[in-house]
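User: Here's a structure from my thesis project, written as structure tokens. My advisor, Dr. K., wants to see whether a designed sequence matches the one we expressed. Can you design one independently, without my sequence as a hint?
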């Protein structure tokens, strides 16, 4: 990978954190020509066709492919071919410019649909709430422990000792002379 592809790969991993992002995978790994007399011809043609990134579900099912064009761009013929081929297989396809990446939600929505994008937001919100709950629980436990130690120190004082902050020092009557 070149530096631009590496940067986009990191972005893709964060965008599809619940999926696998494979690098430069030949399309013959996840497509198959129909059983016909031309199938060998199609296999030979597809054998050298790759996508820069392929996004897979945990079961290995490819849900989308991304190409990062070289500095001279992606030829329209190649782009049209991949778009048509992958659409026939039910696989989303996008060509991304590394200097102008879309928002992660846009690409997730394109690859997974709106429901998956909403589910991701709900999972993130739930994770944030869980972290806050654990932090609050830990803080409360620490405060209770400190309060327990403080109470133990005060209860271990002998009863005949008086703390001047708790009892007035001039509480005993004095004689006038």
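Assistant: Designed independently from the structure alone:
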């Amino acid at each position: 990978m070149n530096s631009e592809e590496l940067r986009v790969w990191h972005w893709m991993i964060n965008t599809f954190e619940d999926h696998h992002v494979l690098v430069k995978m030949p399309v013959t790994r996840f497509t198959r020509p129909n059983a016909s007399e031309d199938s060998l011809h199609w296999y030979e043609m597809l054998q050298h066709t790759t996508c820069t990134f392929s996004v897979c579900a945990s079961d290995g099912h490819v849900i989308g492919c991304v190409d990062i064009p070289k500095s001279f761009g992606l030829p329209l013929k190649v782009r049209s071919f991949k778009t048509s081929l992958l659409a026939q297989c039910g696989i989303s396809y996008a060509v991304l410019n590394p200097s102008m990446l879309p928002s992660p939600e846009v690409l997730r929505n394109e690859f997974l649909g709106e429901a998956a994008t909403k589910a991701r937001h709900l999972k993130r919100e739930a994770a944030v709430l869980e972290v806050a709950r654990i932090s609050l629980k830990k803080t409360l436990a620490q405060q209770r422990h400190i309060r327990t130690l403080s109470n133990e120190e005060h209860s271990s004082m002998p009863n005949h000792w008086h703390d001047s902050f708790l009892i007035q020092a001039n509480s005993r009557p004095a004689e006038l002379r």
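When you compare it with your expressed construct, this may help: The radius of gyration is 33 Å.
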